[in-house]
Input
Amino acid sequence: MIKSKKNKNLKKIDLNIRIYPLEVILGSVYAFLDKAFMSLDHISSELIRVSIEPRENISGDRVLGDLKNELINQLLRNHVSRQNQSIREYIVASAILGAAPKKVKTGKVNEVSNVKTGADNPDLGLSLENDKDLLKELKKIEKEFSITGGDFDFKNDTMGIAVPWEEKFKRKK
Amino acid sequence: MKELNFDKRIYDISAIKSTAACFKDLAKFSISQKENYIIVKIDDAEQEFGDVIAGEFANYVLALMIRDLK
Output
């Protein structure tokens, strides 16, 4: 495809697109753009020729060998990606649906405009009545608060947490 | 003058045009089409890039196509 001086290091490989789809070939070739000048050409309806002209001080055989491995790698990635496509779509869809307000989940999309934001809104599933664990924790804190007479005792710093770093590790003269 | 032939069944014309726009300060590019090929002619390339400009051009086209594919 590139009409240039004859390069002894020039390598060519013919790939069947029934085995290696174009996206697999493109993905593999992309990995070697920094090592060689790559060009693609259709030599028949089913065959694509990849021409590899290595850059200076790079072995053509090495690039060709690595390209063959990369083709297998990309082929497998492509295969796995297609196999998992429906699962990925399902996960994303359920994540989006999970983040949406309840009214959207039930399909009453028109009511979404009336949805309030904040913890006081039961439609968002953030109501305190629904969250038993949170309620329990709040009651625990309330209890602790009443024991200390309405004031947490932070002043009694038995572990020395409030002591500044400079004071704690001050060098003795 | 250097000539590059890009197979239309593989290469995307918009990627070729974008590449020519990016390389415009390094040489003069003319793009034409003939049967199954998009032909890019490269003239007046800057001396220091003369040997590699065709290869770099083709690589850049591939890179743009793959970027769009993703």
In short: The two ends of chain A are 79 Å apart (CA to CA). Residues 130 and 167 of chain A are 47 Å apart (CA to CA). Chain A is about 40% helix and 10% strand.
